Amino acid sequence: MANLSSVNLNRLQVFVTVVEAGSLTAAANRLGLAKTMVSTHMQRLESEIGASLLVRTTRRLSLTDAGEAFYEASCRILSDAETAISAAGHDTAEPRGTLRITAPIDYGATVVAPVAVALQQRYPLLKIELLAGDRYFDLVADGIDVAIRIGRLPDSGYQAVRIGSFAEWLVASPQFLSRVGEPQTPEDLRDLAFVALSVLPQPVTWTFKTQGDTERTIRFNSTFSVNTAYAARIATLAGAGLAIMTDFAAAEDVAAGRLLRVLPGWNLPGGGIHAVFPAARHRPKKTRVFIDELRSHVDKSSGSNRRIDVQG
Predict the structure, then answer these.
(1) Is it true that domain 4-91 has CATH number 1.10.10.10?
(2) Per-residue confidence (pLDDT) for residue 179, from 0 to 100
(3) How many CA atoms lie within 13 A of 43 on its CB side?
(4) Structure pTM?
(5) Burial of 244 from C-beta contacts in 10 A (0-12 / 13-18 / 19+)
(6) C-beta separation of 225 from 272 below 8 A
(7) CB burial class (10 A; 0-12, 13-18, 19+) of residue 89?
(8) What is the mean pLDDT of residues 162-170?
(9) Using an 8 Å Cβ cutoff, are 166 and 249 in contact?
(10) Is domain 168-269 classified as CATH 3.40.190.290?
C-alpha cells in the first residue's frame, strides 16, 4: 500500500491539469512543460500510488474509477494548499492572530505593556497576551512567540536579537537620605540599610567603578529583602533603604524626584536586553513588528535616560 512519503505531491497539480485540459499536450502547454515530461509525471504518479488513473486511447483520455476518486481528492488537497498559502500570505500584509509575550514583571509593566497596547491599536486583527513573571517560561511548551530576557542569556537552542541595554542605578528616597545623610563614597554605603533583591546570585555584593576604572566592591547591610523588582521599588519609595534598580524601572521616579540617584559618578554593571524566540526559518510578521516597535521605544527612552543622568 502506498504511503504519503512515497508520493511526490507536486505531481497532483500535473494530474489535475491533465484531467481538466483533456490531453497531455494541452496540459503541457498550460504547465509550460514538455509533453514527455507530463507523461513521465503521470506514469510515476500511478506507480507511486499503485493504481491506474487514466485510460489512454488514441483520441482522448478518460478517468478510471480510482482516477475519479483520486481527482476529487487531489482537487481538495490543492484547494486546501492554496487556502493555507493565502492565509500565510496575509503575514506580509497585516499582523494578525495572537502574539504571546513573556517579560520580567518590571520590564513588562513599564516597557512592554505600553508598546504592546500601541501595537494592538495599530493592528486591530492582532491579539496580545502578555505573561509577566520573574521566572523563565518554556517558549515551546508554553506557546510563547517572543520572550524578553534581561541580562546574560543562558545557552539554549533559541534565537535572539538584542533590543538594547540597561544600566543599574543606586537609588534611595529623599526621606531616607534626609534621615541618614547622603553618601559621598562607596565605603559610606556599608552601614546603611539596603533593600536586597533575593533572586539575584549575589544580592548584597556589588562592584562600583569610576570612569577611570577605579573599583570598589561593597557588601551591603541588607535590612529588607524582597523577591521581585517591583516589591524592591515599592519598599525603596517607602524609605526602607538604598536599592539598586535598573534604569528603566527607576527612570520615572528619578525624573519626578520620588527617588534620588546616589553616587552617580560610580557605575554599576549593566547588561543587555534581548528578544528571544523559538528557532524558525521565517519569523512571523507579528513578532517582527513587535520587536521593531520595542527597539524603537527603547532607543527613544535611552535618550530620555541619558538626560536624567546629566541632571542627576
Answers:
(1) yes
(2) 95
(3) 6
(4) 0.61
(5) buried
(6) no
(7) exposed
(8) 92
(9) no
(10) yes
pLDDT tens-place string over residues 41-98: 999 999 988 899 998 776 678 899 999 999 999 988 887 777 666 556 555 568 888 9
Half-sphere CA count of 159, side-chain side, radius 13 A: 12
CATH assignment of 95-164+273-311? 3.40.190.10
Assigned C-alpha cell, 53? 488513473
The pLDDT score that the predictor gives to residue 283 is 77
Cα–Cα distance for residue pair 187/190, rounded to 1 Å: 6
What's the chain's length in residues?
312
Distance from C-alpha of 23 to C-alpha of 235, rounded to nearest angstrom: 81
Where are the domain boundaries for CATH 3.40.190.10 in the chain?
95-164+273-311
Q: DSSP H helical segments within 50-186, as ranges?
A: 65-89, 105-107, 113-122, 174-180
Cell output for 31? 504547465
Phi, psi (rounded to 5 degrees) for 270:
-100, -145
Indicate where the chain has its CATH 3.40.190.290 domain(s): 168-269
Does residue 178 register a pLDDT over 90? yes
